[in-house]
Amino acid sequence: MTISPEREAALLASVPTGLLINGQWRDAASGRTMEVHDPATGEVLLSIADGGSEDALAALDSAAAAQAGWARTAPRVRAEILRKAFELVTARAEDFALLMTLEMGKPLAEARGEVAYGAEFLRWYSEETVRDYGRYLTSPEGKNKILVQRKPVGPCLLITPWNFPLAMATRKVGPAIAAGCTMVLKPAKLTPLTSQLFAATMMEAGLPAGVLNVVSGSSAAAISAPILADSRLRKVSFTGSTEVGKRLMKDATDNVLRTSMELGGNAPFIVFADADLDKAVDGAMAAKMRNMGEACTAANRFLVQESIAAEFTAKFAVKMGALATGRGTEAGAQVGPMIDEKARAGIHTLVTAAVDAGATVLAGGAPVEGPGWFYQPTVLANVPNDADILGQEIFGPVAPVTTFTDEDDAARIANATEYGLASYLYSRDFSRLLRMSEKLEFGMVGFNAGVISNAAAPFGGVKHSGLGREGGAEGIAEYTTTQYIGIADPYEV
Ligand code: NAD
Q: Which one, of 435, 426, 349, lies nearest residue 392 by Cα?
């Protein structure tokens, strides 16, 4: 059912427009505001406070002041706040989904999927809060005792991208709260509204003032630079492009900050001739088209064993070509717009260059005329191995297909990238899957699965795809520091 304009207006009117600092929503110190647009129409959705350096430092003041008290809060109290937040986000799933569709463009069904996924981080970390174990042991010499405890790392700066406005926030805020850290969240300027509503929900769940501060703004560096330069900050957790991540890692050296970096990807989707072909095509659709291809885990290169390449590609092209583009609030829309004009132009440049280099267009291949930044779901066959489109993150609904001969050839092609985030394997031979996993230089491998993100699993990459893990037991460890207490032989004192 298409969403009515009245429903959209009522939801937007409920979104806080200020900066959240020490439990209060306030205007930017400069008095400036910034507009947030609908990528499907180009129209302004809402104007919100445009935070800058002064606001960033006020937010850090608030987080630093709240840190000691928050660290002492009973784990059960933190757990119950997270549980309450999970329940509130779930109860408001339709509001969160519609808000993400409006500011980011993904169809409502996708946005609902993200709400469920994003809320899981709140539930998972509510459960992990009370299980953040240390250890106690006797030293190997048999005399002294070793006590190891985990403590919150301290105030954190959390920087999130525009593509998953809710899940990228909950994946950081959830474990930070669980570990007892306070934080400043800086959402992407293109999609800050979901974080605004999420922060309001966290306050309603009982989060004390100062634990979560939110500073949106049009200049990311104006917000991050003064915070990173301040020795009260102890950690930066970033999800976004490799380019910006590298810059932030350099900025983080002066204060020797803990860093978690969830950066770009170039996922290979590898199909062996013994795979169930129809399941592989369905998996390819999911791995490529989740979030319209605007995902770090999106299958970026399809490597198909030579003997089945033509059949696989033909079936895949039929399904891709049948997808309907449209504003995400419209009934029947399966593929929303790209986030902005620049993103769409970049995608088209890659497609055009691949075609010039000899690739064949089996579906799509062009922008969609009219308002919004829509791009046709596209399948390219016979893509030369040195084409730019295979080396760069496409971040759109475009699937380049190339071929391989055997396992070693597949692994060699798959690993020929500086990235190492997600990878996908389709085969009926489990031993082959295990052999391939050993060869693949990727933080994550999907076996006959096109979507692998899960709050209970450690998400993250190797090489230029980043450092650290989000989700799972590893996710909370990123927000704790280890303290060792050496205890003299209790029989000698
Ligand atoms: P981006 O790097 O442009 O921006 C990410 C965030 O960093 C935004 O909040 C932005 O405002 C901020 N930022 C930009 N410049 C900054 C600076 N100089 N100092 C401080 N902050 C700055 O990335 P994006 O376009 O928003 O997101 C897409 C990228 O994110 C893709 O590369 C994608 O692969 C990656 N991503 C990775 C993961 C993962 O978990 N590995 C998940 C989602 C997205």
A: 349
Task: Say yes or no: 367 and 219 in one domain.
Answer: no
Q: Whose CA is nearest to atom 18 of ligand 1?
A: 221
Q: What are phi and psi of 148, to 5 degrees?
A: -125, 125
Question: In 42-187, where do the E strands start and end?
Answer: 44-49, 135-138, 145-152, 156-159, 183-186
CA distance 249 to 478: 16
**Residue 193 three-state SS:** helix
For ligand 1, is residue 297 a contact (CB within 6 Å)? no
- Asked, for residue 491, whether it belongs to a domain, the answer is no
Atom of ligand 1 nearest to the CA of 264: 34
Residue 231 placed within a domain: yes
Tell me if 262 CB under 6 Å of ligand 1: yes
- In-domain check, residue 441: yes
At 16, which helix (H) or strand (E)?
none
The response to whether residue 247 sits with its C-beta less than 6 Å from ligand 1 reads yes
Q: Is residue 249 in a domain?
A: yes
Ligand 1 centroid–CA 30 distance in Å is 25
**Ligand 1 atom showing the smallest separation from residue 162 Cα:** 26
Domain count, the chain: 2
The residues carrying an active-site annotation are: 262, 296
- Its pTM surpasses 0.85: yes
Q: Residue 114's domain spans which residues?
A: 5-263+466-482
Per-residue pLDDT tens digits for 404-422: 999 999 999 999 999 999 9
Our mutation pick for probing the ligand 1 site, out of 36, 163, 215, 454, counting the most ligand atoms within 8 A of Cβ, is 163
AA identity, residue 366: A
Task: Tell me, in angstroms, the distance from the centre of ligand 1 to residue 244's CA.
Answer: 7
Distances in Å between the Cα of 314 and the Cα atoms of 66, 106, 360, 361, 410 are 58, 26, 12, 11, 21
- Centre of ligand 1 from the C-alpha of residue 160, in Å: 6
Structure tokens at 58: 């006020």
How does pLDDT run across 312-358, given as a tens digit for each residue?
Answer: 999 999 999 999 999 999 999 999 999 999 999 999 999 999 999 99
Enumerate helices (H) and strands (E) in the chain, giving the number of each: 16, 20
Interhelix angle 93-104/193-204, rounded to 10 degrees, is 160
